[in-house]
Amino acid sequence: MSKSLHELLPTVFNTNHAWKFQLLRQWQEILGNLSHVVHLEKIEQTTLVLGVNDSCWLQELYLLSPLILTTINKKLENAPIKQLRFKLAGIKKSQPYEPRPSVLPQIEDITLRSAEQQALQRVKDPELQGVLKQFLIRCYTEK
After folding, report:
1. Residue 113 pLDDT exceeds 90
2. Which of 26, 58, 97, 116 sits at 20 to 30 Å (Cα–Cα) from 74?
3. SS3 3
4. Distance CA 53, CA 39 (A)
5. Which of 15-24, 84-93, 94-103 has the lowest mean pLDDT?
């Protein structure tokens, strides 16, 4: 007569919270493909706090929150969920700054193509022409 944990939990806790156990059991089914980018952090009365690891997904899920809320409430019996809150759960560690190797070509070594030189000659303003030339040279040095 052994029972699994998900069968025992509702008998131990208040039956008014049975929807919470159902939510935990069906989380992946409810969210489908989104379950790998969002996880349940906390249940606060009528609000679910959902953790997201990426700020892009945070924005996307916020925009989808009415649809997600509707889906959750359809799947769960007597769920009092009225609001979803999203929070950034983890921050990706950035790579430490490493300066580029100093093997960049010297500015004097860079020659512009004839089409680029002709285009620059069509620019009437000498100051703008100089800025555009420096920009082209910088583009070549940072390649």
Report:
1. no
2. 58
3. coil
4. 9
5. 94-103
- DSSP class of residue 77 equals T
pLDDT band at 84 (very low <50, low <70, confident <90, very high): very high
Residues 51, 107: Cα–Cα separation, whole Å? 49
Mean pLDDT is lowest, of 14-18, 103-107, 134-138, for 103-107
CA distance 83 to 46: 7
Q: Give the tokens for residue 85.
A: 């809150």
| 84, 48 Cβ separation under 8 angstroms | yes
Element (H, E) at 85: strand 83-88
Beta-bridge mates of residue 88: 52
- Furthest C-alpha separation in the chain: 91
> What spatial distance separates the first Cα and last Cα of the chain, rounded to whole Å?
70
Angle between helices 5-12 and 18-25 (to 10 degrees): 160
DSSP-assigned letters across all residues of 7-69 = HHHHHHS-GGGHHHHHHHHTHHHHHGGGGGTEEEEEEETTEEEEEES-HHHHHHHHHHHHHHH
